[in-house]
Amino acid sequence: MMAWPKPVKPLLAFITEEPDDINTSDQFKEEIIIPINDGGASDSEFSDDEADTSTQSSRNRIAAILKKVDTIIQKITGSAAKRSEYDFWAPKIEDVPPPTLIAGYGIRWNIKFQSRERGYKGRNVIHKLMEIERDRQDLEGGKNFYDNMEVTRSDWEVVKRLNDIIGEFNFITKKMEGDISSAGMMLAEYRWLKTYLHQRLASPTDTEFASMYRKMIGKTDNYIIEALNCDVIILATILNPTYRLTMIQMWFPSHYSFAETSIKTKFAERKLEHEEHTSPKRPPPALEGNQELRRRDHDAVVFFPNMVDSATQDQLSVYLSGKYNLPIDKSGEALLWWKEHSGEFPILSLLARDYLACCATSASVERCFSAAADICGRDQGSLASLTIE
Questions:
Q1: Contact, 319 vs 264, CB < 8 A?
Q2: Distance (Å, whole) CA 341 – CA 22
Q3: CA nearest 351: which of 378, 320, 321?
């Protein structure tokens, strides 16, 4: 018997209890976006210096905005009086009250995403609270609770644009979690993620995030290469009835020959193993008497001349031809598909049960962020795709 990889379920980090004393002095170092350094020589050092200065300025501006917004949200969530004040004004200012604020601490990018998303939805309420605090300070004096910080409309737009980007990663992470055959979806999701980043990079409104996009694209390319070099992921992709071998042929043609050889080899091995443990079937009894029926001329007409006779092909060829194709929006239901068609594809269903049991991990998404900013820890490399082997 062959040893199959143990499934690994992707999990987001747990939310720990917030401390009573909030110290915001050094909680935002991870938000600094790392610029690109490809090591290439330039024709003009002056142009390079000018570009580096522009990138540094944009990076510092975004980091300052994020730090300011996060600090204000943490101050509100860290004070029972301010939370009550927020809850009081929320239904009075917004027709649909915004969700309760949460503080985004530490390295958990998904919690930071949710914190800023809720902050953006409640930005008008936050503005009201800061306005009330300024009026109180003008009348009573003393220290401003928000340290005299201001969050402009343009600042909130930067937060929204960044969250729009991160939102796609958050969606993919949620999609790939749970009891689904995520290993067979990895290559397709990586390709979509790369396409999405290229679209954002080409957008004229996202020039501030260009260096971040390039870093994230580079990291995504690395993970695509790792996935393509992983036999388990290749076979899981082929055994996903949404993609099969055609997806690799269309999107990753350089690995098509390897993928085709791999599935044929595994199919032959499992078929031989299955036949060794299965007793031979007895042939059906022959029909007695003359069973010849009258035939008419039009009985010999072939209405579907191009249809492949599945009886003349083995089940692997029939499956790879695309029979009973599973729609893309149901690609996570591959195991259910195999359960329904196990009678027609008995050998392949055994392979599918093993390979589609492998689950992807969200670590590669986190590492993609690590390439753009120190948002996630850099000690999670052991969760790369090859580890599942």
A1: no
A2: 57
A3: 320
